[in-house]
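Could you help me review a protein record that somebody else here produced? My question to you is simply how this chain folds and whether the tokens agree. Thanks in advance; the entry in question is below:
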Amino acid sequence: MKQLLIVFTFLLVFTVSITPGAMGAPDYPPTPSKSEDVNESKNPVDEIKKQLDGDINKLLKAMDGVLTKMRTARFRTIITYVDGGKNDFFVEGCVEGYILHDKQGESGFGYDPIFFVPELDMSLAEMSSDIKNKISHRGIAIDKFKNKITQIFNV
């Protein structure tokens, strides 16, 4: 059997004021609306950023009036490795924080501008790549994955 690697990342928002659940990145490629010409050539990265901006605005609107202390959230990445049962495993990385009332920062991707990490007193979008890779859900999951693969295959 061939190996399979699955990476799943999502944002969990915990609040009583909106429907709880996971908010993942938009589907790729974005589905054109009825008003868009399907044949029209568009930059897929720009389209994803546009869709994410809309998703961020929807989340912020849904959380309007929710107190900061009630805006807790968790980014979570799960990496699953499957090779037919011999070495199947999964690892995960999490970062805890809360949803800001407005965007802060210009770097990062997706929900980074509204995800605040209290221990560092900044949003994910305000962090340097080095800091973010050390504390982020993806960075933690990737480090755990590398360690597990090294352990299994003695590389």
Notes: The two ends are 21 Å apart (CA to CA).
